[in-house]
Write a structure and sequence with these properties.
heterotrimer; B: 287 residues; alpha/beta; 39% helix; globular; C: 383 residues; mainly alpha; two-stranded antiparallel ribbon; 14 helices; 6 strands; 3% strand
């Protein structure tokens, strides 16, 4: 029982990170219609920039993460403004392919700058744990879970109450009506990329604090786990991203511990993708997605 | 066969909603074999939506549509196409990267059977069918004055020519029922006349029934046997064009809607393609 | 615009000989010369090229070209994106080793088996991917790469697990052994024999794809790509058509995988990863989407990238040298692939094939006009 609870908590922690990453995809997909694979690159850059700002430049950890978020968000806006918006409306695959091209560039550049070794982010939690009865919860998991929920609350409030957030929703539904309210779709597109970049950078930093995995080449593989998450939740559903993220995180953690060895090495790595295939067969639009009526 | 002539196409109490928006609220009509049936109405009256229901692109929320006595509900567009219903689109829907000939030959897709393997080795059925398709499309290309440009890629051709290619493609399907969505939008008077002539010739020679959405009242009066007037997704009149234009409700529908100048434009028989197009909902986010 | 209008009666006088382009695979004399040149080169290049190093590179390019021609069917002609082409290539490679190596069956069996196995998996997966419009095929294909590597790592008896396996399948066609080709007294190097096999197969694959694209099935793929609703309204069944494209693409990927296996002589599961898919995508984007020769051009170009990166790596300051931090050849190649995908999609979306076409027209102004009458014929006599 305790062991299961233990797995559940680390699953929730992983799920929180996946939810943040998935939310980055969903924000862009919902407001611009582009399936943005560059998101995986934002994760990598976010992790490494936090490392440099904290370990090399000596900024306090929180400030370092904030700086990393700002820098990656700025890069995201820059990429949208200079490259992606030019091809955003061509056809289905060109925008995906362009964001994929951008994704390919980032990890090797990071490897070139930061080298192939694992880095220690030097986060303040280290290996400290909190004991509740028989349960041991790492400070890191607590921090991830709490900060994710704070971020999600802020995110929800932004979309529900702020003028800009409302405008972003309106743009997704009807670009012309949003324009009439004085919000240009260009602004909304850039803003959504900025938000995606920020979410990616934060998620990447949190991924990089995972004990054992840490910051090194291959971080983008974790970022790609956001893709099964959004299929589970529904391509354009923020709520789906959060719940799908938690679900995938928990299932994967249980798979890590509970799946017998006869399933072979690395089974837990493909669990999210197998889940995704099942969902695609039963409910292709995702659990929180809606079947779109296409108007022509 | 019953003694009373069964209508070729019959729609009863068709209703279509998108989310909370009602595009068609309650539309019934019947089209007889060989008839030239026009559908008119102000922008946003649900004309194009109606056409999309008829060939299976949209599925109505309620109501029924039958063609030659068979229900069309739940059938996919491709199945409806093979029943003998073809159409053109308001905002051109050509295959822009392909040649004129390939576009028109695609109209014969449902009449051909060859699979990928036969095509891959260029032998047997595929080879025979491709030759037949070309032979059968040739007269059509000539009829539409497209034979000289049949090898050109559609992309760079002028608007008026593209409209003709689309009509040729729809006719290549050898349909029983032809649906036309604003075939002369954006054309000048001379082009409109020529297109009308082609449509009438084709209708006669190929024994077609035509349902045409059109703003151009002059054209409608000239070619249509009967006209269905839609407003806000409802039928307000269904009669011969001469009667319809004098119907007070029709006049009110045209003049009432936010000072629309449709009547002026319609009677002038001239209009610009862009100003007239219904808002293109395809601009919405794609999944 | 009005000058374009011709009446039904007016058009019947048109010169009959150029009414409709003839139903030929290769319409122009230039094209026929090109094919002749290709056939001659397949024989002449290995005979006259003494460097096995460069022949090896051309062989790798040929294999990549076969795989890319397949991906081009899916992405270029049918408009669907796949990140999982490496999976089908890998599947073909291991099936070739299983059928040809472990069971010792001849190439006439293992090469088709590689293609058919990939086609079957493609057909089994297509229904997952094509139920909704959207990027679902791309997502499913991404999953295939991860699942494929996991399965291959754990099927040790066939794949050798993480370590991989030596390929024992032989490239023999009856009495002809392409790996030890002899012609009378002439003894060919391994690379020379494989060059003939690989590039001849590429020629056949190009012929098949060209035939498909000019007939019903291929036309439907292009129609769905250009305007899916219009295609459906004409009676094209979307799911069937896109499945066809996916299965054909997978089959060609599988065949390329079989040839890749004998060409490399050693394969391991991890080689068939996303980075390999990236290469194929780069090839078709750079070469030219939806063009027959684009993938061939792109494959030669993309295969040369790491070769040149290697050549110049000592003179580039940001490259890793002797333990210093910096870029490896693989890293820099990936960066270049990514950058070229982006640059080509923005600046030359039809790829090198379009660039070459423009160059040719600049040099030979008449070349571009073959078989095409001038577009805006002024015809006042139609009234």
């Amino acid at each position: 029982m305790t062991a299961n609870l233990q797995i559940l908590i680390s699953g929730i922690s992983l799920g929180c990170v996946l939810a943040l990453l998935a939310l980055g995809f969903v924000v862009v997909a919902k407001s611009t219609g582009v399936f943005n694979l560059t998101q995986g690159g934002f994760v990598v850059l976010g992790g490494y920039l936090s490392y440099t700002a904290h370990q090399t430049w000596g900024l306090p950890f929180v400030l370092a993460v904030l700086l990393s978020i700002v820098l990656v968000a700025a890069l995201a806006v820059f990429l949208e403004a200079t490259i992606v918006h030019r091809i955003a409306t061509t056809n289905l695959f060109t925008p995906i392919l362009v964001t994929f091209g951008l994704l390919i560039i980032i990890p090797p550049v990071a490897a070139g700058i930061w080298g192939p070794d694992q880095k220690n982010l030097g986060d303040p939690w280290g290996l400290k744990v909190l004991r509740v009865g028989d349960l041991t919860i790492t400070h890191r998991d607590l921090a991830v879970i709490i900060s994710t929920f704070v971020l999600l609350a802020a995110f929800g409030a932004f979309f529900r109450f702020s003028r800009m957030g409302l405008a972003m929703q309106a743009t997704a539904l009807d670009p012309e009506a949003a324009l009439a309210q004085g919000v240009s779709d260009r602004t909304v597109h850039r803003l959504s990329w900025g938000i995606a970049g920020a979410l990616g950078a934060f998620g990447g930093t949190m991924l990089a604090t995972t004990a054992g995995a840490g910051l090194g080449p291959g971080l983008e593989q974790y970022a790609l786990l956001a893709i099964p998450v959004i299929i589970l939740g529904g391509l354009e559903s923020p709520l789906g991203a959060v719940i799908g993220g938690l679900f995938v995180g928990i299932v994967q953690q249980f798979a890590v511990v509970r799946v017998p060895e006869s399933f072979g090495a690395g089974f837990y790595e493909v669990v999210p993708y197998l889940l995704m295939l099942v969902v695609m067969l039963v409910r292709p639009e995702g659990f929180f997605g809606t079947k779109k009526v296409r108007r022509i | 066969m019953t003694a009373v002539a069964q209508p070729l196409l019959q729609a009863e109490h068709v209703r279509l909603t998108f989310g909370g928006i009602t595009a068609i609220s309650d539309v019934s009509f019947a089209v007889q074999q060989g008839e030239f049936f026009a559908v008119i109405g102000p922008n946003g009256a649900g004309k194009t939506s109606l056409l999309n229901v008829l060939n299976g692109v949209y599925r109505p929320s309620s109501g029924s549509v039958t063609f030659q006595g068979e229900s069309l509900l739940g059938r996919k567009p491709a199945q409806i196409a093979s029943l003998g219903i073809s159409r053109t689109f308001q905002n051109l829907a050509l295959f822009e990267e392909m040649t004129v000939l390939d576009n028109v030959v695609l109209g014969r897709h449902h009449l051909m059977k060859a699979g990928l393997l036969s095509g891959a080795v260029w032998f047997g059925r595929a080879r025979r069918e491709e030759h037949e398709a070309r032979r059968d499309c040739l007269p059509l290309l000539e009829l539409m004055g497209l034979d000289e440009i049949s090898g050109e890629v559609v992309h760079d051709l002028p608007y008026g020519v593209k409209k003709r290619i689309e009509l040729a493609r729809a006719l290549a399907m050898q349909p029983t029922l032809l649906l036309l969505d604003e075939p002369v939008a954006g054309m000048n008077a001379q082009e409109t006349n020529e297109l009308a002539r082609w449509v009438l010739t084709a209708k006669q020679e190929l024994d077609l029934t035509v349902v045409m959405i059109e703003h151009d009242m002059a054209l409608v009066t000239k070619v249509a046997d009967r006209v269905l007037v839609l407003d806000f997704g409802e039928v307000i009149c269904c009669d011969t064009p001469d009667v319809a234009v004098t119907d007070p409700r029709v006049i009110r529908a045209y003049l009432g809607g936010s000072g629309d100048t449709l009547v002026e434009r319609a009677t002038a028989g001239l209009q610009t393609p862009t100003a007239d197009a219904e808002p293109d909902p395809d601009h919405g986010a794609r999944a | 615009m009005a000058t374009d209008v011709s009446t039904p009666t007016g058009s019947t006088r048109a010169a009959p000989e150029r009414k409709v382009p003839p139903l030929r695979l290769v319409g122009s004399r230039g094209g026929r010369l090109g094919i002749l040149l290709f056939v001659v080169l397949v024989i002449a290049v290995p005979l006259n090229m003494t460097s096995t190093y460069w022949l090896g590179i051309l062989n790798a390019a040929g294999v990549a070209a076969i795989a890319a021609v397949g991906l081009n069917v899916l992405t270029g002609y049918a408009g669907q994106l796949s990140l999982g082409h490496a999976f089908f290539v890998g599947l073909g490679a291991f099936v070739a080793q299983w059928v040809g190596g472990i069971h010792g069956l001849p190439m006439l069996l293992w090469l088709p088996a590689a293609g058919i196995a990939a086609a079957l998996v493609g057909a089994a997966v297509a229904p997952f991917a094509l139920r909704l419009r959207g990027p679902y095929l791309m997502i499913v294909s991404l999953a295939l790469v991860f699942i494929g590597i996991y399965v291959a790592r754990n099927l040790k008896s066939i794949t050798g697990g993480n370590e991989g396996t030596i390929v024992e399948a032989r490239a023999t066609l009856g009495p002809i052994d392409f790996e030890e080709l002899t012609l009378g007294t002439l003894v060919f190097a391994r690379e020379q024999g494989l060059f003939i096999l690989i590039w001849a197969t590429l020629g056949l694959v190009l012929l098949v794809v060209a035939n498909v694209m000019r007939t019903r099935g291929g036309r439907a793929m292009q129609a769905v790509r250009d305007h899916d609703v219009a295609a459906e309204v004409l009676g094209v069944r979307m799911m069937r058509t896109q499945t066809n494209a996916f299965v054909l693409a997978s089959a060609l990927g599988g065949i390329a995988g079989g040839l890749l296996a004998v060409n490399l002589e050693y394969i391991r599961p991890d080689s068939f990863n996303i980075d390999l898919s990236v290469q194929y995508l780069a090839i078709i984007v750079i070469g030219g989407l939806a063009s027959l020769w684009g993938p061939v051009l792109g494959a030669v170009f993309v295969t040369l990238v790491p070769v040149f990166v290697d050549q110049f790596s000592t003179s580039l300051p940001f490259m890793a040298q002797g333990g210093n931090a910096g870029l490896t050849t693989t890293d820099l190649s990936l960066i270049l692939y990514g950058a070229m995908i982006v640059v080509f999609l923005l600046a030359e979306p039809k790829g090198l094939v379009a660039t070459l076409g423009r160059l040719r027209r600049a040099v030979l102004p008449s070349a571009g006009q073959t078989g095409r009458p001038p577009r805006t014929t002024h015809r006042e006599d139609t009234a």
